[in-house]
Write a structure and sequence with these properties.
31% strand, disordered C terminus, Beta-glucanase/XTH, eight-stranded antiparallel β-sheet, Jelly Rolls, secreted, cell wall biogenesis/degradation, glycosidase, single chain, ConA-like_dom_sf
Length: 327
């Protein structure tokens, strides 16, 4: 009952919102796979359904699977409705993220949604990461539980990236915002990135720090993607110059979090944040400059029964260059 009430409150808070953000979401239609994406790896572990409007990527003993946007983008709105594998999914990692690691190997930027599988009877966890200019040593990770079962139906996960801010959304509810500050310097992602979606074996770290591995007797593990929205300022890959005009760039910069959305985000964060780098004084005795302390949120993080965060530095297996055939 408590879960139902929380879901209803979040919905009511967001549904009352009238802002440029709401209009922003409504103006973008989904894009068929062939018009915006290309397969990275996985061979037959990637399948297109509904005339290319739904993508299945799966993990089995031979391989995971993944796809990427055909273009690089400098700022924009990127979104997908995702349904995660059900039943036993320990060690399985599904990622929906932006990166330029194949172009800027040592100074890459990255914006992540990572979904971490679990043993039967325990919920999937969601993690967001932000890296700028190769700042992997200063991981800006957060981890969350959810108010719904992400294996039962599709739910929308979105990233808004502008010159001024980054916002992560779940079902159009903002769950995390990072506003650019001068003190961050190059740690704020600022170079063109591609959009990726992958499924892979994260047995070494994904579930209780590697305690539970992928059990392939339950394979294939299938994640479904639909309603793919790819709307941003495409760049010329040869010189990385943006094709956006000032009006388009200003449109992304104009997206902010309204008062009602702020209430919904605060409610989410007080209940569902299980780890935040801003409260991890062991890893960061001195807080990074963009962090501000919310005492109620901090208390929830400290009370959380979620697992201790494992700093793995690199996401082994997730990143596949455009010329790679996978692992």
């Amino acid at each position: 009952m408590a879960l139902i009430i929380s879901s209803l409150l979040l919905y009511l808070l967001f549904s009352t919102t009238v802002s440029c953000t709401g209009v922003f979401f409504e103006n973008y239609t989904s894009l068929p796979f062939d018009e915006g994406y290309t397969q990275l790896f996985g061979d037959n572990n990637l399948m297109l359904l509904r005339d290319g409007k739904t993508v299945h990527i799966s993990l089995d003993e031979k391989s995971g699977a993944g796809f990427a946007s055909q273009d690089l983008y400098l700022h924009g709105f990127f979104s997908a409705s995702i349904k995660l594998p059900s039943d036993y999914a320990a060690g399985v990692v599904v990622a929906f993220y932006m990166s330029n690691g194949d172009v800027f190997e040592k100074t890459h930027d990255e914006l992540d949604f990572e979904f971490l599988g679990n043993i039967r009877g325990r919920e999937w966890r969601v993690q967001t990461n932000i890296y700028g200019n190769g700042s992997t040593g200063v991981g800006r990770e957060e981890r969350y539980s959810l108010w719904f079962d992400p294996t039962e139906d599709f739910h929308r996960y979105s990233i808004l990236w502008s010159h001024q801010r980054i916002i992560f959304y779940i079902d159009n509810i903002p769950i995390r915002e990072m506003v650019r500050t001068p003190a961050m310097g190059g740690d704020f992602p600022s170079k063109p990135m591609s959009l990726y979606a992958t499924i892979w074996d994260g047995s070494n770290w994904a579930t209780l720090g590697g305690r539970y591995k992928v059990n392939y007797k339950y394979a294939p593990f299938v994640s479904e993607f639909s309603d793919l929205v790819l709307h941003g300022c495409a760049v010329d890959p040869t010189n990385h110059l943006s094709t956006c005009n000032n009006q388009e760039s200003d449109r992304y910069n104009s997206v902010t979090i309204s008062y009602q959305q702020r209430l919904a985000m605060n409610d989410f964060r007080k209940k569902y944040v299980t780890y935040s780098y801003c409260y991890d004084r062991e890893r960061y005795p001195t807080r990074t400059p963009e962090c501000s302390v919310d005492l109620r949120e901090a208390k929830h993080v400290y009370r959380s029964s979620g697992e201790r965060f494992m700093d793995r530095r690199r996401h082994h297996g997730k990143r596949h260059g455009r010329g790679s055939g996978g692992e």
